[in-house]
Amino acid sequence: MYRLLFGLISSVVATLSYADNCDKTRSSYDDVYCTNKIYLGADTDLNKNYQLVRKYLNETQEKILKKSQLAWIRYRDAECSDNLQSTENIQCRLNMTLERNNWLQERLRECEAGTCKTTRLSE
């Protein structure tokens, strides 16, 4: 009984530790796991960058940025859904999130330089 339990625990730990090595994936499961892991990090950065930009904005600019961000989320979700299977395409979501992070970082640099333009917030 102990050998069986030990063997089961060992195989689970080995699988989890291998799946965490995203440089050398061995299966489509590993690919999905790693892409999801990267996407979660990008999504965390997206939220952080959004909040950093907001700190520089007045109330009107905040509303414009929020409207822009919500429109982008709807666009991303529409672009990255697989209507045939009703599943989200995580690679598409990752790519679009990385692009949006770059956009937010550009706005942040502008705001930090004192040139936070309202017209650029609605793109």
Summarize this entry quickly.
The chain has 123 residues and is mostly helical. Helices cover 72% and strands 3% of the residues.
Secondary structure elements and their pairing?
Elements: H1 2-19, H2 28-54, H3 59-79, E1 81-82, E2 87-88, H4 90-112
Antiparallel strand pairs: 1-2
Structure characterization notes:
There is one protein chain. The chain has helices at residues 2-19, 28-54, 59-79, 90-112, and strands at 81-82, 87-88. With 123 residues, the chain is mainly α. The protein has a two-stranded antiparallel ribbon with strand order 1-2. The protein is elongated. Mean pLDDT is 81; it is low at 4-19.
